[in-house]
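User: I've been going back and forth on whether these two constructs are worth ordering. Before I decide, could you fold them both?

Assistant: Sure. I'll take them in the order you sent them. The first construct and its structure tokens:
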Amino acid sequence: MYTSRRHNLRHARRAFTLVEVIVMVTVIALLMAVLVTRMSGMFGRGQAEIAKTQASKISQALTLYLIDVGQPLPEPGFNLEILTKRPDNGGGPQGPYLSKASDVVDPWKEPFFVEVPGVVNADFDIVSFGADRAAGGEGINADITQ
């Protein structure tokens, strides 16, 4: 009888109590919440950088298109999808200037647009409204203009 009691005590010391388990789960949950919050901020900044790169690429393609068609500036409301089309499909003479239709869509699945005259550049700007899809904003919601 004495041996089985000692045996039960030995097993009881090896196991975690309910309170210890609850504390460990709570600590892990808090750490995960902090990690997810920080990672989401990095993800948003990454998308903004991708949008800047895309806008710059579109600006270069549009400049080549304008040179090819002999226009100094794009017309207001210029449809950027023209840059993705071949000459026999309504694109510019040396088109396509961008390889795929998704090149004119920002990381938030909204189309870029052309602003004539530009605010940042004298001739034209390529603009995305950012993560909030509305004019203005700060941080990842700021407008992207190239």
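The second construct, handled the same way:
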Amino acid sequence: MKMITRLAVLVLMLCYWQPTAHGCTSFPIHLGAVDSPHNRILVEMIATIITERSGVVVGISYFEGSPALYEAVDQKKVHLIIEDTTTALGLLHKSVAAEQAKNLETAKSLYKQEKAMIWLEPFPALARQNAALAPVITSAVLTEFPALPRLLKKLAGTVTGDDFAKLLAAVDSGQKPRSVAKEYLAAKRLI
């Protein structure tokens, strides 16, 4: 009778136990962005490179606007965002300077103090006049996943303006952003 009980317990354990794989960290990473074709490609590239290089599965959410995105950040539902300095400074009710470097330094400082978020290496090829575009992470993600800045810096240094225009054209022609991003990362040997 003991043998049957043990066997039944073992069967139940095997049926209900589900292993989880989190790669090098058990901290979940959730990526959010304002919904646009441009951001969908960036989000998919960032999520794919993190997942492929670390084994961490990244959740993705898209939002109708910055207020909804930042509400999710405040509620700790989103840990990593894509932001540009002019939008960031506008949300903080700060003036935007003519120099991109000054705007980036101001955004970095204010986000660190006021939002406990860290600006990572911008995507130089995707910058506009006085606006830098970069991933921004919560301090908690940086603590749990310290290799993330180095990983995303490699991506930021690889993407060119011409490459990104081709990726956008592919998405505009009907291809899925995830497929386009994955093919690009594989072609550049980032995954």
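Notes on the second construct follow. The chain has one domain: 33-187. Confidence is low (pLDDT under 50) at residues 9-26.
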